[in-house]
Amino acid sequence: MHIMKAIRIKLWQDLVNYKKPTSFQLKETYPLPPYSTVIGMVHTMCGFTSYHPMEISIQGKYFSKVNDLYTRYEFKNGMKYEKSRHQLEVGEYGVGRGIATAELLVDLELLLHIVPDDQSLVEEIAQAFEVPQEYPSLGRREDIATIQEVKIVSLEKNVRFKKNISVEPGYGAYIPAKDVEEGLIIFGQDDDGVVGRRNALGTRYLLTSTYELINRGTAKAPKMFRNWQKIDTFYATDISVSAMKIYSKDEDDKLVFIRMKKD
Fold first, then answer.
1. What are the residue boundaries of the structural domains of the chain, listed by start?
2. Kind and range of the H or E element at 71?
3. Could you tell me which InterPro entries the record lists for this protein (predicted)?
4. Angle of CA points 211, 110, 198, to nearest 5°
5. What pTM, to 2 d.p., does this model score?
6. From CA 55, how far away is CA 258, in angstroms rounded?
7. What is the pLDDT of residues 138-196, one digit of tens each?
8. Which residues lie across from 249 on neighbouring strands?
9. DSSP for residue 34
10. Does domain 2-250 have CATH number 3.90.1300.10?
11. Helical (H) or strand (E) element with 129
């Protein structure tokens, strides 16, 4: 068992889109923010100018989904303006303007655990969320987040549970796929309300986490691309970890879904 400190944050958002990178005509959203989105928010709130390694646990729920129209601008590199083709002229280049649809989550609640590798940063991160220097957003820049609670908690990693522990009612979570494959997670409930072991009932995602810049050009003409590290996860709701299983939780018996590390 390892004891560490974590920052637990509860926040709420009215309407939000966590865009799936492969969606275009309909800007689809993930059910919860990917790891990279949360990591980016933490670094922005703290004013970090370099990457600070951290582990993130993401849980939450939303009331419903709606579709909303937005203005989309399209242009092709080097395409000259043509009056019959383009709606806008920018310099000598043409830009098309039209409408597209974005999928939005409604009335979203999030429960985040932030576990920095450098434990000396715990107080600094907590302070950045308790007294933000600018309005916090998560997702699009306009997706304002209302912070409801910030608490520094003790995190017990790889501890043997003495009782069954479940997520909040109705909550979903991103679970490392390896934990699901090793049978650490219980999915769903039996009809009589007793938690029971079932097959994995969730959606599998490869979620972006961190990246490194790769030069695919030359030293004289660099072309930098982000090479993303991705985490294999399941998204599922109404999940538990049973007694006698080894997993992670905080001091208030809130499950923490970070990758298990063997002693």
1. 2-250
2. strand 64-74
3. CRISPR-assoc_prot_Cas5, CRISPR-assoc_prot_Cas5_N, CRISPR-assoc_prot_Cas5_Tneap
4. 90
5. 0.88
6. 7
7. 999 999 999 999 999 999 999 999 999 999 999 999 999 999 999 899 987 544 444 44
8. 156, 255
9. -
10. no
11. helix 122-130
